[in-house]
Every structure is written in structure tokens, then in C-alpha cells.
Design goal:
Layout: H1 3-14, E1 17-22, H2 48-51, H3 54-59, H4 61-77, H5 82-96, E2 100-105, H6 111-115, E3 120-122, E4 125-132, E5 138-139, H7 157-160, E6 164-168, H8 177-189, E7 192-196, H9 205-214, E8 218-223, E9 235-238, H10 241-252
Parallel strand pairs: 1-2, 1-7, 2-3, 7-8, 8-9
Antiparallel strand pairs: 4-5, 4-6
The protein binds 2'-O-acetyl adenosine-5-diphosphoribose.
The site of 2'-O-acetyl adenosine-5-diphosphoribose has 25 residues, from β8 and α10.
């Protein structure tokens, strides 16, 4: 077995409080494109960075809501892969022996929920839920395409011309306060931090591992490519999370 996996398995076996941060890479093996990959089909000429902003929504809510609805349907159709499943197993094995596990995710696809993870902090919200632009009421649309773009919010449509927008964090927006508080508390007390399938360039998520390291936590990265944090972590596992994570969980909790 890879010597980095063996070393991380040993750290995991002895850890009492583990924080895992995931990014789009963990869902790549479920068939969902990562944020920085080019888009396909109808959307191939659009840059995600220009659609995921409040300015884009103000300028063209029809286009932005159509794009998010297309992505929502893709997420609903996707299944968790062995990487997601291994993280759910890691949590239950740690909890069974009184340990603590917190999963911070930048992903909006809800695949960690589908895989059975429980203590999840959604840093960037969820694409599966939408919310009223006037009163903030949340709604979970069904598995078919929304009937109208931009979608009217039934709660406030008549009186205030409310629209439904995806319940995600756009560039330039604040992260949800409860998510920030839960993440800070977990990072402040962890003894092992794993960063998985993220390019580690979007703040504040990218800084959590540096903060954990400064506090003395051991740090791990699992990614198919080097990132800005690769040289600073204790162990860098270069490979697919859907392969590395099941190996790691097997090695840490065997027997
Ligand atoms: P990115 O698309 O920036 O990065 C995905 C990372 O996953 C890259 O570093 C890839 O090398 C890695 N990767 C790809 N396949 C992998 C696999 N099978 N196993 C392991 N790693 C793999 O996605 P994020 O880092 O999640 O924010 O992006 C962070 C945030 O930036 C997103 O949440 C989104 C985006 O702009 C907002 O929308 C606010």
C-alpha cells in the first residue's frame, strides 16, 4: 500500500477530532463536472465564474436560473461514489469510539447526505434548495425542470414580485453565519484535517487547513493534481478520492 496512505491511516486511527473539507473533485467520479472544468452542451460557451454572481442574476435572472436548474437536475440524478461512502464510514467508525467528525463541504450537490454522512456543514449552500428573493423562504423543487425562468416564488410572487433563486453562495456574497461558526469551532478543536478534491483557492475554505496546521493538527491532502497547499501539508496523497478514501478507511479501521 502507498506509504502516505499507511501513515494517514495511523493518524486517523489515533485521532479524536477529525475535520474533512471537500470540494468538487470528490464528486467528479459521480459524473459531476468540477467548477473549473469547461461546461458542455448548451452551456459550453459560458464561463461559470460569470454566472455564479449576484451581478449575473441582476443582469439576467432567466439565464442564471436556467443554468442552475440544469445543474440541479444533474445533481439530483447523480449517485454518491466510493469516496463519499468512505467518508460516511469514517464518521460512523469515529463516532462509535467517541471521536468527533465534521465534514465541511464547498459542494452544493448534496451527495454527502445521500451517502449517509451526518455532521455536514454546507459552506456554499445547496443547489437542491431554492429561496425567495423577498422573504427568504426555502423550497425544494421536484425532480423535473422548473416550469418558468426566472421562477416566481409562490409565497411573494403576487405582492412583491418575489423570485426563486438557488440557495447557494455566489461570488461576492457572505457565507451563511451558522456554517461559518460551525466550521470555525470544528477547525479550532481538530487534531487531524483532510482536504479532499478542492483546488484550495476559494476563501475562507482554503485557509482552514492552514489554521488547523498552525494549531498543531496533522494535515492531509487528497487530490489528482498539486494545489497551492500541497507543499505545506504533512501528507499529500496524489490520486482519485474514490480510490484513496476507501483504502484509507479500510487501513485505519481494519479489524
Ligand atoms: P475546483 O473545480 O476548483 O477544483 C476541483 C479540484 O478537484 C481540483 O484541484 C482537481 O485537481 C481535483 N480533482 C478532480 N478530480 C478529482 C478526483 N477524482 N479525486 C480527487 N481530486 C480531484 O472545485 P472547488 O475547489 O470545490 O464556489 O471549488 C471551490 C469553490 O470554487 C466552489 O465551491 C465554487 C467555486 O467557484 C462558489 O460557487 C462560491
Amino acid at each position: 500500500m502507498d506509504s502516505a496512505i499507511e501513515a494517514v491511516a495511523e493518524a486517523l486511527a489515533g485521532a479524536t477530532s477529525v475535520v474533512v473539507l471537500t470540494g468538487a473533485g470528490i464528486s467528479a467520479e459521480s459524473g459531476l463536472r468540477t467548477f473549473r472544468e469547461t461546461m458542455e452542451g448548451l452551456w459550453k460557451d459560458f464561463d461559470p465564474m460569470t454566472l455564479a454572481t449576484p451581478e449575473a442574476w441582476e443582469a439576467d435572472p432567466e439565464k442564471v436560473s436556467r443554468w442552475y436548474d440544469w445543474r440541479r437536475l444533474g445533481c439530483l440524478a447523480a449517485d454518491p461514489n466510493p469516496g463519499h461512502v468512505a467518508l460516511a464510514q469514517m464518521e460512523s467508525r469515529l463516532n462509535a469510539r467517541g471521536g468527533r467528525f465534521t465534514l465541511l463541504t464547498q459542494n452544493v450537490d448534496r451527495l454527502h447526505h445521500k451517502a449517509g454522512s451526518r455532521n455536514i456543514v454546507e459552506l456554499h449552500g445547496s443547489i437542491i434548495q431554492w429561496r425567495c428573493t423577498v422573504c427568504g423562504a426555502k423550497t425544494t423543487p421536484g425532480p423535473e425542470s422548473l416550469p418558468k425562468f426566472p421562477p416566481p416564488a409562490t409565497c411573494c410572487a403576487a405582492s412583491h414580485r418575489g423570485l426563486l433563486r438557488p440557495d447557494v453562495v455566489w461570488f461576492g456574497e457572505m457565507l451563511p453565519e451558522e456554517a461559518l461558526a460551525a466550521a470555525s469551532e470544528a477547525v479550532a478543536t481538530c487534531d487531524l484535517f483532510l482536504s479532499i478534491g478542492t483546488s484550495s483557492i476559494v476563501q475562507p475554505a482554503a485557509s482552514y487547513i492552514l489554521w488547523a496546521a498552525r494549531r498543531g493538527a496533522e494535515t492531509v491532502e487528497i487530490n489528482t493534481e498539486p494545489t497551492p497547499i500541497s507543499d505545506t501539508v504533512d501528507w499529500s496523497i496524489m490520486g482519485k478520492s474514490g480510490e484513496a478514501l476507501p483504502n484509507l478507511v479500510r487501513a485505519a479501521f481494519a479489524g
